[in-house]
Amino acid sequence: MKRIACALRQVEKGATLVACLCLFALMAVVTADVAARYFLNHPFAWSHDVITLYLTPALFFLALSDSFRSGAQVNVDIVHRLLPRGVRRVTDCLCNLLAFLVFALIAYAGALRAVDAFANGDVTVGIVPWPTWPSAALVPVGAGMIALRLIARALGEAAGLVEEPAANPHSLEAQGAYE
């Protein structure tokens, strides 16, 4: 189990690194497009498509699992904190199992969509016919990673092996989270 968790953590770190590179690329494309628009009076015709089709979905889906792992997502846990630890473990396990089912279904449906887009050679309509399958493939990759993280967390909760997620930003840094 420890090896699987370590391997998943390494995949998450790599995916988060790619997400960070996508954020950098997104900022570079927007900056270059604005400069070309205002200084050269010739904006990039392709920038909007690249940003909305590839960079933004990659940024979201590739960082999703690692942000969940590090506790960086917004939680409404007023009642949760008041529960005894045993009850929290049970509710966390059940919630993680339910979320696993949702994300596993998203990953499955997304994989079907990506395979279909690839098989059909789907492209966007516009100046540049961008293929849509890479964008569609980001959904099952990201949803699959968080589904694995959720089932691992649920099993860890059931076994009593999961530590409390980070409570503050300083803890996130200590855990190696990317901010």
Explain the overall architecture:
By secondary structure, the protein is mostly helical. It is built from six helices and no strands. 76% of the residues lie in helices and 0% in strands. The two termini are 28 Å apart.
Give a nutshell description of this structure.
The chain is mainly α and 179 residues long. It is built from six helices and no strands.
Termini, distance in Å?
28 Å
Structural class: mainly alpha
Query: How many H/I helices?
Result: 6
Q: Please tell me the overall pLDDT.
A: 87
SSE topology string: HHHHHH
Q: How would you describe the shape?
A: elongated
Given as residue ranges, the uncertain stretches (5+ residues, pLDDT < 50) are none
What order do the helices and strands come in, and which of them pair?
Elements: H1 2-39, H2 47-70, H3 78-82, H4 85-120, H5 133-159, H6 169-174
Helix pairs in contact: 1-2, 1-5, 2-5, 4-5
